[in-house]
Amino acid sequence: MRVRNGQIQNSTISLSADEEIAGQEGSRINEVLENRTLHEIRDWKALLSRTGVTMSREGVGAEAGKREETIRNAEDAEAGLKQKRDERVGEVGGWLNSMFGVGS
User: Fold this and answer.
1) Which backbone phi and psi does 75 adopt, to 5 degrees?
2) How far apart are CA 23 and CA 11, in angstroms?
3) What does the DSSP 8-state code read for residue 61?
4) pLDDT digits (tens, 9 = 90+) for 33-65
5) From CA 61, how far away is CA 31, in angstroms rounded?
6) How far apart are CA 27 and CA 45, in angstroms?
7) Cβ atoms within 10 Å of 87's Cβ, excluding its own
8) I want to staple 74 with a disulfide (CB 3.0 to 4.6 A). Which of 39, 64, 67, 97 is the partner?
9) 84: Cα separation from own chain's centroid
10) Torsion on CA atoms 17, 27, 95, 44, rounded to nearest 10
11) CA distances (Å), 16 to each of 38, 70, 72, 82, 89, in order?
12) Which pLDDT value is given to residue 7?
């Protein structure tokens, strides 16, 4: 994160270990953070949640339209991915809250 006079100039934050996905996530998160005043951010978890960043769906239900069982598996996998994303947002957001002494 690059900050000048308390204002976020740009950031490179992502929730994914996959390099390609991380780049896309980083861009979306940067769009939300860019030009925000650092000391005015009260809850990093909530802010990261609003970015729309999700975990990758690769390999989750590629054949979902073909069989009902596959659809159920895809839905279960998607729910698992959402839970992992929420946990990761909580971890990263909590760390940022702690680092900057804000939030709950």
Assistant:
1) -65, -40
2) 11
3) S
4) 999 998 898 888 888 877 776 544 443 333 334
5) 30
6) 17
7) 12
8) 64
9) 10
10) -140
11) 23, 25, 25, 13, 11
12) 93
Instruction: State the residue range of the domain holding 87.
Output: 2-100
Residue given tokens 């009260």 in the structure block = 42
Q: Whose CA is closest to 50, among 79, 29, 36? A: 29
The single residue listed with the structure tokens 């976020």 is: 8
Whole-number Cα distances in Å, 22 to 6, 14, 18, 74, 77: 25, 5, 6, 22, 20
DSSP string, 1-44: -EEETTEEEE----S-SSHHHHHHHHHHHHHHHTT-BGGG---H
The domain tally of the chain equals 1
The tokens for 53 are 């960043």
**Token pair of 73, please?**
């598996």
